[in-house]
Design brief:
The protein has 321 residues and is mostly beta strands. Helices cover 12% and strands 41% of the residues. The C terminus is likely disordered.
Length: 321
């Protein structure tokens, strides 16, 4: 009898401890950034996030623009909602991991995160645990991707940003001289953000770019340009890209020079014209508009401007002999 009473008492105590079941939880969301395939993961900065309650699996985010506007859509009925039930805040001041804190109070939530710097968004349906005060989630924004993908349970989308670059490389072999066609130029596109650049002519020849923040290198272009047309008198090149962030690298081997610049593509233009001018008379790296130009390092003798029709070739010989 005493054992029975003790068992009942213990059961009552346990029931009392857990009689209040709640799905309240605080999501701690860590947004990672990967700018190149196989590259290291860093913190994605300035990501925002919010949550909706009372929506089923048929609800999703239709586009990047909707994600920014906090609009979700019922794919079955077309119904839309645009007032989140909860919004995230920074997990901690100056958190080096860029984490977010998002408190929710529903059993089933639709989580949405927006990475405006990369023009990307992610969403996930999540069933919260009972009496679980903290839920940890991680997401990967892979800005080198050009099509929607899933990762760690998140559906990730981005701005569709296709364009065709038409690259016109000009040559000026004498200061204040006439401009002609820079022949034999090669051009490439890398789907990377503005942290990347080119350190030297040798690296440009090897199609190698470097992240100025981490020192990471990449030598596999996302796209390679081809001739715009057979025997094109302007020596133009054509290259189709499909990323909102593009670094274009042009290498003029005959002149011992290279040039690169960053582009932000919003997808509104089918064609992007890119004109650049290789000035082989320049003795030091220079910028012209948004383009940064570099030269082959001289290994002996003086670097002198080329002259006449062979000015570009002669300048290259002077620089690298």
């Amino acid at each position: 009898m005493k054992r029975t009473i003790a068992a009942i008492a213990a059961a009552l105590i346990l029931t009392g401890c857990f009689k209040k079941v709640t799905n309240d939880t605080t999501f701690v969301i860590k947004p990672n950034l990967q700018t190149v395939s196989g590259g290291s993961l860093t913190a994605a900065e300035s990501v925002t996030a919010y949550a909706y309650y009372g929506v089923g699996e048929e609800w999703s985010v239709a586009s990047y623009e909707d994600a920014v506007a906090r609009v979700i859509t019922d794919t079955a009925t077309g119904e839309k909602r645009q007032t989140p039930d909860a919004e995230a805040a920074p997990y901690a001041e100056n958190d080096p991991q860029g984490r977010l804190s998002l408190k929710t109070t529903a059993k089933h939530v639709l989580l949405v995160a927006v990475y405006e710097q990369g023009k990307m968004f992610a969403y996930m349906h999540y069933d919260t645990g009972e009496n679980l005060p903290t839920t940890y989630l991680t997401m990967q924004f892979r800005t080198w991707k050009t099509e929607p993908y899933t990762d760690s349970g998140w559906s990730v989308g981005m701005v569709t940003a296709e364009t065709t670059f038409v690259i016109e490389p000009d040559l000026q072999s004498e200061e204040n001289g006439a401009v002609s066609v820079a022949e034999g130029v090669k051009a490439y596109a890398f789907y990377v953000n503005g942290e990347w650049g080119v350190n030297s002519y040798e690296e440009a020849l090897a199609t190698t770019i470097t992240n100025t923040e981490s020192g990471e290198t990449l030598n596999q272009p996302s796209e390679t340009a081809e001739a715009y047309a057979d025997a094109d008198p302007e020596g133009r090149l054509s290259m189709k890209t499909s990323s909102p962030q593009v670094l274009v690298l042009a290498v003029y081997e005959a002149g011992g020079m290279y040039a690169f610049r960053h582009y932000e593509i919003d997808g509104s233009a089918e064609q992007t014209d890119a004109t650049l001018q290789f000035r082989t008379w320049e003795a030091a790296p220079y910028t012209d508009g948004e383009w940064s130009y570099g030269l082959a390092a001289p290994t002996g003798g003086e670097t002198t401007p080329g002259e006449g029709e062979d000015g570009g070739t002669q300048a290259a010989a002077n620089r690298i002999r």
